[in-house]
Structures are given as C-alpha cells and as structure tokens.
Amino acid sequence: MKSSRLCLLLCCLAASILRIESVSRTDVIQYLSSISGSKIISGQHNREPNSDPAKWTRIARDITGLFPGLWGGDFLFLPDDVQNRQSMVDEAIRQWNAGSVVALTWHVCPPTVGETCNWDSGGVLAALSNDQWNSLIQNGGDLNQKWKQRLDTIVPYLQQLQDAGVVVIWRPIHEMNEGWSWWGGRPGSDGSRKLYEITHDYLSPKFNNLIWVWCVKDVQMDSIGQYWPGANYVDVASLDVWMNNQPSDQHYQDMLNVAQGKPIALAEVGQIPSPAVLERQNRWVWFMIWAEYLKDPAFNSDDSIKNTYYLARTLRQGELTGIGEGGDNLALNHPIRASSQESSCANPENIVDGSTSTRWITDESEEQWIYVDLEAPQSIQRVVIEWEAAFASSYQIQTSNDADSWTTVYENYSGSGGSDLITLSQAVSARYVKLYVFQKGTAFRYSVREIEVYS
C-alpha cells in the first residue's frame, strides 16, 4: 500500500503537478468557495463514446492550446458505453493526476428496464406511471430496491476513484425540474428531489470523496425551490443552460437565492459563457461545455472559446493550485471532550478520525458542546465542520488556552448544515477549539461527521 502511494506521488511530481498526495472533498469544496467571485474553472464534457473518454477535451486543447481545468465524464446507458465504463474511470484518474477536477454525470436507464437501454423507446426518455413512481420512492418498494441495485453497478467504479484519491464532483438526477427524463419534472417532497435524497442517502455513507451537486435546468426558475432538498444534501448548486444561450442575470440571482451560500456552477452549457457575462455574474465557480456543442457553429466559434479561456479569471488544467494547500488538519486524532454522546458507536472521537463515514451524536438536550485539545497552542485561522443530517442552526466556535475561560471567535445563527467552511478574520492562538451548539436545525439530536482545524 505504501509503495503504491509513493508511486502515485512520484508520477505526479514527474509531471510537475501541483497536487498534494491526499486531497479531500472538503479541500475541493473549500477551494470552490474560495474562488467564488474571482475565478472560474473551464470545463469540457466527454460523452459518447466511453471508449474514447477524452475526445472533446482534446479538441478543447486543439482550439485553445490549453486543457480545461475540469474534465467531465458520464456513466451513460448504451451497451457499448456501459462496457467501456472502466476506460472512462481510468481517464478520470489520469485527468485528476494531471491537475484537473473530475465531474461525473449519469444518464441512467429507468429501474423498470435493465442496466442498458436506448435514449427513447422506454429508455432515458421513458415516463413512469404514478404507481411506478410511488414504488420507486417508497423504502422497500420493488422499484426502490431495483434503483439501489442500479446504484450498486457503479459502486465499484466510485470505489476505484476513491482508492486513487480522486475527489468526484458528482451530479446525479440532473435537470430534475424538467420532465424530459424519467427522473425529472416531479416537484414536491415526494417528487424528483426525493429520488435525489434516496440516491444521496444510499451512496454517501459508502464514500468520502463525493461532492454532491444539485442541478436544475433554466426553465420555470421561479419554482426551483420545490426541488431543493436542503443544504445538508447539497455541496454545490448548479444550473444547466439550454433554453438560453447565456445564463440570464435573473437566473443567476435565482441560483444564488436557492443555494443559501453554497457555491454555484454552470454544470452544462451549449454556448460558452461570454467574458461580459462572467464579469457580471462572477460567482459561478465552473462551466462545462457539453461535448459536441464545442464545435457547433450555431453555439460556439473558436474565437469565442478562446476569448473566455484566455481571461485572467479562467482556470485551466494545472492552474488549480490552491486545492489542498491549507496545511495539515491540526485536530486529527487529538484528544476530545464532549457534553454527551448518544451511544458507544457515536462517540466524540469520531469527529477527529479523518473519516466522514463516522459521526458523533449528542443526547437530546438543546445545548451541547465538544472541544478538541491540540495539546499545544497553535495559530488557528480555519475551522471546517462536516454536519450529518441533524445540524445546528445556531452555534459558536470558541477557543481557549486552559479549557476554562473561552472566547467566541465565530458565531452563526442561520446554519443550514452540510459543510461549514469557516475562515476567521484574524488568526487566533489557542490550544483548545470548541464547537458550542444551542439551537437545532432539525427535530433530531445533533450529529457531526468531522471537525477540522487549520492554521
């Protein structure tokens, strides 16, 4: 195991890649948040054929002389593409190691048919009856079980990516607010967002490398709130721009409103966003041109692509040098004390074990606390909290040098769960760092996956 990790690191160094050996999903999420307002990652999707999963990325390089900073792949549905999923995963690993972020989509067959299907004729464009939909979203239903079996078919590939250290920008159930696909166009708590939640709850405990991307299309934007699953299910909120050539200023604002402070992205575009649009709408953190639209003259010209690629704000492959450069997690495996714990399998030490698959759960009291002993005073500037579903809507970060007298260095009265990435305005010298929670965001006990502290 040690030799394989060393080999990976040496390969990266040989290629002059500014990528550290271990980059977490939190590192990538924090990086995306940090560039919001100043930078945008260029991206290119690669769909059919999965036997050549970098075809359109190479064409982007041929046009601009530069590889995009985001490589997009797709698990797809046609027999030949399903058979070549391994080629797609191998390319994802190569792209990550070359200095790009990896985004994966899945145009998936409905659970009423097999793993492979056609685009239409009962395939991706199929429509489920209400009875079939109810079977799909009810735990234990026939189609619900078949859906989870369908998810199991990609688990080995996601596991390979996790084992290779690849963080995946994962966008399932995309464009859920329009009914062109079998999974989309059903608003409300038992609609398309419910299938997204089921997918999240099934895969999330298995992997710590998935960045969950919620996605809508630029239609009926006044109702996208009906599809929002809650901040604890979303790391990035994204828009696919197809009904308009460029994202409108109103749709940009709609995305900011629904995202509740999460990063926003242009997950699919036919036409590359123009320099003028990116100047006005400066909080998009990536765009991804859809496959063959890159060379469609009705959407793009080589000059328009170059104009955006060559912007000072646009990041290309190898330029994402801030990911994972925040230093070591000072809290990792350090002593911990807490006000309570639900059970022996949800103990406080779980929040500093470096894994988001474990968690600390409190008892039912409203006021709770947990603190980590860094065992010596440290200069502290960033704190990361990875909430499980039961988050705190009001909480404080406190620091101390004696675990007796505490100073509040950060407070949040509108917490929404998910990943909270906290940067203090000034570094603080402290030995102890405490999370103090005093208002629940749900009806359940507080649950925290991980707390990280950085200088």
TrEMBL record:
PANTHER family (alphabetical): GH26 DOMAIN-CONTAINING PROTEIN-RELATED, MANNAN ENDO-1,4-BETA-MANNOSIDASE E-RELATED
Signal peptide: 1-22
Pfam family, one: Glyco_hydro_26
Organism: Orchesella dallaii
Keyword annotations: Glycosidase, Hydrolase, Signal
SUPFAM superfamilies: (Trans)glycosidases, Galactose-binding domain-like
InterPro entries, per database record: FA58C, Galactose-bd-like_sf, GH, GH26_dom, Glyco_hydro_26
Name the record gives this protein: Mannan endo-1,4-beta-mannosidase
Ranges for domain GH26: 23-318
Family statement: Belongs to the glycosyl hydrolase 26 family.
Residue span(s) of domain F5/8 type C: 318-455
